[in-house]
């Protein structure tokens, strides 16, 4: 308990840092993932090719390599002086968006084709059909895989600590360097991650129950 009580403010800041990076990168991944999923099912060939390339490249690139690009290449090209929070959010968000995209695309494929054909017969555009007809029906199917993806995102956020962002893993390294028993440090860190992942699971279970419909 001494490890936790003596460094309670630092543990609190690390916990909040993990929450912040998880929430911001999850939001970025969700927006990009839905957009790229729309590209992948688009009737426009260049958009489909872009969506396929996005998913193929990001899903097959190690996350650590994306962090290296975000921290050492992006500031030189786009965002000079960007904070570690912004750069870590970009790396995590872009990487996770490829998995969100595939989950959303799988959900779109579960919607009967007749739904889209009926919408088109009423004169609705592709974007209107996707946003008002297909995605609302696909949401229930997409929720379970999204829960797993965002739980994995929470654990992946530990890589941000290796690049200097103040989150739980970064705090663990600092306390270990001070000579504290590594087993107790990892115990409290693991419990903090469990709290976050259980909260994500609970939120998605609630959403599944609220959005459950007879099919």
TrEMBL record:
Residues in ABC transmembrane type-1 domain copies: 15-204
Molecular function per GO: transmembrane transporter activity
Subcellular location: Cell membrane
Biological process according to GO: amino acid transport
Membrane-spanning ranges: 15-39, 60-79, 85-104, 149-169, 181-207
CDD domains in alphabetical order: TM_PBP2 (cd06261)
PROSITE patterns registered for this protein in UniProt: ABC_TM1
Keywords from the UniProt entry: Amino-acid transport, Cell membrane, Membrane, Transmembrane, Transmembrane helix, Transport
A single Gene Ontology CC term: ATP-binding cassette (ABC) transporter complex
Membrane topology type: Multi-pass membrane protein
Protein family: Belongs to the binding-protein-dependent transport system permease family. HisMQ subfamily.
Name of the featured protein: Amino acid ABC transporter permease
Species for this entry: Streptomyces glebosus
